[in-house]
Amino acid sequence: MKNTAVLIGLFLGWVCSGCSAVHPKPGAGNMPIVNDREDVRNCHYLGEAIGVAGSWWYYWAIANRDLTEWARDDLRNRAFDMGGNRVLIQRNENTYATSVVFIGQVYRCPEGTPPARVDGESR
After folding, report:
1. Three-class SS of residue 111?
2. The CATH number of the domain covering residues in 21-108
3. pLDDT digits over 41-68, tens only?
4. What is the value of pTM for the model shown?
C-alpha cells in the first residue's frame, strides 16, 4: 500500500511539474501585441515566434483565461529573446481543447513609436 501511495505521489508530482504559469521575462512584460499591420509599418521584421500554454494532461485544471495569458507571455518571451519589441498577430485560430497557441511576427521598432492600438483595445 505504501508503494502505491508513493507511486501515485510521484506521478502527480510529475504531472503538475508542467502546470506552472508562464511569466514574462524582465523587459518582455510590456511588449505590445498588435493586430494591425500599420503598427509595424516602420519596423524591422525579425521572424516568427510561437507562444504556447497547456497540455493534454492538465488542461482541465486551468482556466482558459490563464492558458491564454500564459501563451501570450510565452510569445512575448520568445519575441524578446529574438530582440523584438513588438509582435503582430493578424488572427488567432490556434485555440485547441487542450492548449492555446499564438503565432506572431516579431518586429524591432524604433524607440518612441507606440502602436496605434494594442490587441484588445479599441481605437
Report:
1. coil
2. 3.30.110.70
3. 999 999 999 998 877 666 667 777 888 8
4. 0.73
Q: What residues does 45 pair with on adjacent strands?
A: 107
Helix (H) or strand (E) holding 101, with range, is: strand 99-108
- Calpha distance 102→56 (Å, rounded): 17
How would DSSP label each residue in 6-67? Answer: HHHHHHHHHHHTT-PPP-PPTTTTT--EE--GGGGTTSEEEEEEEEEEE-TTTGGGS-HHHH
Map out the domains of the chain as residue ranges: 21-108
Res. 77: pLDDT tops 60: yes
In this predicted structure, the answer to whether residue 87 has a pLDDT above a threshold of 90 is: yes
Q: What is the mean pLDDT of residues 1-15?
A: 51
Q: What are phi and psi of 106, to 5 degrees?
A: -95, 135
CB-based contact 15:57 (threshold 8 Å) = yes
Distance of CA 12 to the CA centre of its chain: 25
